[in-house]
Amino acid sequence: MQIPCVRVAREDGERTRERLAERDLLDHDHEITVVDGWLYAPVVDPDAVPEKYTIEERDVPTRETQTMPADLLGFDPSYERLGDIVLLREDDHERARRIADAVMDSSIPVKTVLNRASKIEGEFRTREWDVLAGESTETIHREYGCAFALDVAEVYFSPRLATERHRVIQQAAADERIVDMFAGVGPFAIPFAGRGADVIAVDRNPVAIEYLRENARRNDVAERIEAIEGDVREVATGIEGGADRIVMNLPHSADAFLDTAIDLAGEECVLHYYDIQHEDDPYGPGERAIRVAAEGYEVSVETKHTVRSYAPHELNVCLDVRLRA
Fold first, then answer.
1. Kind of pairing, strands 38-42 and 33-35?
2. In the chain, is it the N or the C terminus that has fewer CB atoms within a 10 Å radius of its CB?
3. Would you call 73 helix, strand, or coil by DSSP?
4. DSSP one-letter code for 62
5. What's the distance, Cα to Cα, between the start and end of the chain in Å?
6. Per-position b or e across 205-226, b if 16+ CB within 10 A of its CB
7. What share of the chain is helix, strand, coil (3-state, %, to 5)?
8. For residues 323 and 187, what is the distance between their CA atoms, to the nearest angstrom?
C-alpha cells in the first residue's frame, strides 16, 4: 500500500522527525525507512505538511510493535484523541475503567484518560469529566499544522470538526478582514491568520480568550489577531470597518446573532452560518432567517453543507452565504 511520506536526507532525519511529531503529523502505524541515503517519514496528513518538505508515495512496512487498546481488551472501544488526552463516552463506570487501563497500557501516546460526566451545558458549552488516568485536563492539540493549547474542562473544543474547519479556512484570502463571533481557543481564527488574514476573534469565556491569545503567540500570528472577551452583540459597536468574512459557529442559537452579523458585514461579505435542524428541512430555517435579517443585501447561498449527524433525525449543517450590499 502506498503511504505519503516526507523525504529528507538521512542526516536531516531526526530533526525532521521531531518537527513532524510536534505538529502531530507522523503516521505511527508505519515504519520510518531509509533507502539510498534518503529517509522516508510516513505522515497522516500530507496537506498539512509545510511546503518546504517533499512528499513522496512509498511502500513502507506496517509497524509490528504497536499495541492498541483493542488488543488488550478483546473488543474495539470507542474513543477520541485530543492531544495527549483520550476522551471516552461510557455510561458504565467499570467498562470505562477497563478501557482507560488498556489505553494507558497501549502504544497510544497519552497522559490522561477522561470519561464524560455530563452533557455540554452552561453559557460556555463545557462539560464535566471523570479523570480515569493521569491528572491534567489541559493539553496541546495539533490540527492541520496549527497547535492549540486548551483545557477540556474549561473550554469547548471538538476535534471532530477539524475537517469542517479546514473546509472553511481554505476559502479565505490573505487580504481579508474576518470576524469570528464565537472564537473559543482559536481553531478558526488562528489558521485564518496563518493564511494572512486579519482576524477579530470574540468569545464570552475569559478562559477561552486567554488560551486564544496564548495560541496566537504559539502559532506566530499574534500580530494579526485581535482577541476580544465579551458578548459579540455588546462589543460589535466597537469593531470598526466591515468584515469580508464572518464565522457564526454557534448551532442552536446562531439565529439570535444574525442582526449583529449583518451590522458587522462589509459591502460584500461571506457568512458561514452553522445550524442544527431536522433532517426534513435542514437548510430552510437558516436560509429564511438570513434573508429576513439581511435586508438591504443581495443574498446568495453558495454552499449547503451537512457537517455531521447531530442526533436522531437532526443534522449539524453549514450555509456559506455571500452578501452583497
1. antiparallel
2. N
3. helix
4. B
5. 52
6. bebbbbbbbbbbebbebbebbe
7. 30, 35, 35
8. 24
| Phi-psi group of 285: left, alpha or beta (phi > 0 → left; psi -120 to 50 → alpha; rest → beta) | alpha
Written as nine digits, the cell of 20 is: 513532524
Strand partners, 226: 200
Q: What is the pLDDT of residue 65?
A: 67
Convert the pLDDT of each residue in 153-198 to its tens digit: 999 999 989 999 999 999 999 999 999 999 999 999 999 999 999 9
Q: Please, which residues bridge with residue 33 across strands? A: 40
Could you give phi then psi for residue 3, rounded to 5 degrees? -120, 135
Rounded distance between C-alpha atoms, residue 135 and residue 262, angstroms: 44
What's the pTM value of the predicted model, to 2 decimals?
0.80
Kindly give, in sequence order, each residue whose CB lies less than 8 Å from that of residue 15, ignoring residues fewer than 6 positions away.
Answer: none
Give me the pLDDT at residue 135, please. Answer: 87
Q: How far is CA 316 from CA 14, 116, 286, in A?
A: 42, 21, 12
Classify 101 as helix, strand or coil. Answer: helix
Alpha carbons 165 and 174: distance in angstroms, whole number: 17
C-alpha cell at 246: 464572518
18: helix, coil or strand? Answer: helix
263, three cell numbers: 451590522
